[in-house]
């Protein structure tokens, strides 16, 4: 590996980390001031955003320890056979960078992942050494998110949880067949075994802290995972069912969905094109329905096209479900329970809570609901109010085009 200075390593290893979606940065158009014009850039990598357990948005230095890897996962730009420039930080360099960036107020924490160097245990030791040094030698109190390596010794993964706020283990692909084909050195039982160990430790040490104040904290911001979408043949229905199973079995805080992006010198077993980004968005909306709107995974999957198992891209999954199950509507805003109101397309949690609070004092009219939603045209066919009943509207065969968002005219020269 060529000798690189810290800045060169940072450029390579921050760029390599961008493929991990386990933070909440969002994409935008590419702009920069490299030609001396203007100020700022949307292209730089290295700092991402995440949400702390109390809801604050925090900025994290997001890097890999190294982009060298002894594994050869087909979808990964860092795989052994990939022809990319390699770099590797020492644990001390990551500690120094984190502290320097923190003191300059660029970041509030660290997101650290890595390719596998030599062996899973060796790599995990290096990752733990970074977190241990930050916490114990420098009394670093910022946020730390560590990617853990499922094949590493469980004791090392446990140590990671003692220093990190959040740990994550990527399941990578939604199906066993997909993982076997695209990441043959990884194994679902080993990945799930590591997730189970983390769940057990979070719960055990959480219980211990309720009884003994001195008991150590273990990953207080929980564990999360990431699935790549569109690299294998898994349908949206498969992905939703898999995510639901992971939430239930491992008590995950988040499942992140990352649309597969074609990489240079890609393996022939990968698709040539990335899936539409809207597919990733629809999966996040489905995830939201399961976590906050009490939909079961099978219900969200029912919103998908039965022939393809894919969610529609032109409408959100909540509207797709409502159009498929028209017999569940209209819902009376003055009488229906909270669960039924949450199923009405266009009504969010805040709107439903406002309806429930208001109707304790008076009956709601359509205009009252209109003030709580962005589009009363979308909501109207699905509800009954004091002065409104969607007599003809609810049964119309052509309801979908009436409530679907209007297609935006694409700009000819848009990026
Ligand atoms: S183990 Fe991780 S870094 Fe290595 S090739 Fe597979 S996905 Fe990439």
From TrEMBL:
Alphabetized Gene3D superfamilies for the sequence: Aldolase class I (3.20.20.70)
Necessary cofactors: [4Fe-4S] cluster
Keyword Metal-binding (UniProt): yes
Keywords: Iron, Iron-sulfur, Metal-binding, S-adenosyl-L-methionine
NCBIfam families tied to this protein: rSAM_link_UDG
Protein name from the UniProt record: DNA modification/repair radical SAM protein
Organism: Sphingomonas rustica
């Amino acid at each position: 590996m060529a000798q690189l200075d810290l800045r060169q390593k940072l450029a390579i290893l921050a760029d390599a980390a961008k493929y991990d979606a386990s933070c909440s940065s969002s994409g935008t158009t590419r702009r920069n001031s490299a030609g001396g014009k203007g100020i700022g850039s949307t292209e730089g990598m290295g700092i991402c955003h995440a949400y702390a357990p109390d809801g604050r948005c925090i900025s994290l230095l997001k890097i890999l320890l190294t982009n060298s890897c002894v594994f050869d996962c087909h979808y990964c730009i860092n795989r052994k056979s990939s022809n990319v420039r390699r770099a590797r930080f020492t644990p001390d360099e990551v500690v120094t960078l984190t502290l320097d960036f923190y003191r300059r107020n660029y970041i509030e924490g660290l997101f650290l992942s890595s390719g596998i160097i030599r062996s899973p245990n060796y790599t995990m030791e290096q990752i733990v050494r970074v977190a241990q040094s930050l916490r114990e030698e420098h009394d670093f109190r910022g946020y730390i998110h560590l990617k853990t390596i499922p094949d590493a010794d469980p004791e090392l993964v446990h140590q990671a949880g003692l220093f990190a706020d959040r740990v994550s283990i990527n399941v990578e692909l939604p199906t066993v067949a997909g993982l076997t084909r695209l990441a043959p050195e990884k194994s679902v039982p080993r990945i799930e075994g590591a997730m189970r160990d983390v769940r057990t430790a979070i719960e055990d040490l959480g219980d211990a802290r309720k009884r003994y104040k001195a008991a150590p904290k273990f990953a207080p911001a929980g564990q999360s995972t990431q699935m790549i979408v569109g690299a294998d043949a898994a349908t949206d229905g498969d992905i939703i069912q898999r995510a639901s199973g992971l939430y239930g079995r491992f008590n995950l805080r988040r499942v992140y969905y990352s649309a597969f992006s074609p990489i240079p010198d890609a393996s022939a077993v990968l698709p040539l094109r990335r899936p539409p980004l809207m597919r990733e968005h629809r999966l996040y909306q489905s995830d939201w329905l399961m976590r906050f709107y009490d939909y079961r995974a099978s219900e969200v999957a029912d919103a998908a096209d039965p022939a393809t198992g894919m969610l529609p891209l032109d409408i959100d999954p909540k509207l797709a479900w409502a159009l498929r199950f028209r017999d569940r509507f209209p819902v009376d805003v003055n009488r229906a329970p909270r669960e039924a109101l949450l199923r009405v397309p266009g009504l969010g949690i805040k709107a439903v809570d406002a309806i429930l609070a208001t109707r304790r004092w008076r009956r709601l009219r359509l205009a009252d609901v209109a003030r709580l939603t962005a589009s009363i045209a979308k909501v109207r066919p699905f509800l009954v109010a004091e002065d409104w009943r969607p007599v003809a509207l609810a049964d119309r065969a052509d309801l979908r085009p009436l409530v679907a968002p209007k297609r935006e005219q694409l700009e000819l020269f848009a990026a």
